[in-house]
Design a protein that fits this description.
Blueprint (H helix, E strand, L loop, with lengths): L5 H23 L1 H8 L6 H23 L8 H25 L5 H8 L2 H12 L6 H24 L3 H25 L3 H4 L1 H23 L9 H29 L1 H7 L2 H13 L6 H20 L10
Helix pairs in contact: 1-11, 1-13, 2-11, 3-4, 3-10, 3-11, 4-8, 4-10, 5-8, 5-13, 6-8, 7-8, 7-14, 11-12, 12-14
């Protein structure tokens, strides 16, 4: 009697699901930790620098583990990695940190989740990729959901200006991250995800540390212990570990499945923000989040697999 061959593949699939799920929850916790740190008087630049200072050694270790590769690094590759690290990890994170000064963590995560649909739009403009019918439906759903949540927040807000400023900052953060994803797709297949993540993330860490060095005194690091603990948690729980787990998960289940599973992100942020920060959960917010998640799910479920993802 032959032994079934499906079990190892099934185990590999479910391990991938759990990795992506855990990574998504880790990423989504960042906004909550930032909100917990701000009452101690720390500003966005200092807090992001703390996060990157703690994360940098781990990305350096990643670079060492990546080791030598059959594909040599060219000078143009270094320039591309630095540019993508600046746009995707440094600038996007900085704008998101600034936005959290003005808006709730749950709304920040919901706005960031526009990234997949922004990738569709930017790919259509830059690479002339065809926008299919399900893309149009997904775009209508996601932006309809955001308008619903933002409109409800504006109606309930005593001051609308902070909400508009924060929403704009986080939207631009999602836009810059979408540009990073498009750019990374041209270099990751050649250099490998581990080496790419190590160098691009390491460059972003250096940018954040340099910004702090040029704009703040060392006295700004004289902060209460909880701020350092939140910075360490953001580095490990919300940056290094989820970055590695997401890459490993995508390697097991593919990018399309990972996009669907990671839809848990905004939901987990809403729940965490309600439990930890006591942010209210309204019916309008739930409906808006459901529209955004459904739109992103549609983009992921209908996406044609890349050659790397097709069965060989």
């Amino acid at each position: 009697m032959s032994v079934p061959t499906e079990r190892p593949e099934g185990r590999r699939f479910w391990v991938g699901i759990m990795l992506v799920l855990t990574a998504s929850v880790g990423f989504s916790a960042r906004g909550v930790l930032v909100k917990l740190a701000y009452p101690y008087g720390v500003d966005a630049i200092t807090l992001m620098a703390l996060r990157m200072i703690f994360a940098l050694p781990f990305f350096a270790l990643m670079a060492l583990l990546a080791g030598s590769s059959p594909t040599p690094m060219r000078r143009a590759d270094f320039a591309t990695l630095i540019g993508l690290g600046f746009i995707g990890y440094y600038l996007s994170s900085y704008l998101s940190f600034l936005g959290l000064v003005y808006i709730p963590a749950s709304l920040e995560r919901l706005l960031l989740y526009l990234t997949p649909t922004l990738v569709v739009l930017m790919s259509a403009v830059v690479f002339k990729q065809r926008v299919r019918r399900h893309h149009v439906i997904a775009l209508a759903m996601t932006y309809g959901g955001i308008m619903l949540v933002m409109g409800n927040s504006l109606v309930l807000a005593q001051e609308t200006q902070p909400l508009l400023i924060g929403g704009t900052l986080v939207f631009v953060s999602a836009l810059t991250y979408a540009a990073y994803l498009i750019g990374s797709g041209t270099i990751i297949p050649r250099l490998g995800s581990l080496r790419f993540t190590a160098y691009a993330s390491g460059a972003a860490c250096l940018f954040a540390i340099a910004q702090f060095a040029f704009t703040r005194d060392l006295a700004a690091l004289d902060l209460p212990l909880p701020v350092y603990l939140y910075g360490l948690a953001m580095a490990l729980v919300c940056t290094v570990l989820p970055t590695w787990m997401m890459a490993e998960g995508i390697g097991r289940i593919g990018a399309s499945q990972a996009a669907i599973v990671s839809s848990i992100g905004p939901v987990s942020t809403i729940v965490l923000a309600a439990i930890v920060l006591h942010e209210p959960i309204t019916l309008v917010q739930v409906c808006g989040a459901a529209l955004v998640l459904a739109g992103v799910w549609l983009v992921g479920a209908k996406r044609e697999p890349s050659p790397a993802e097709k069965p060989g």
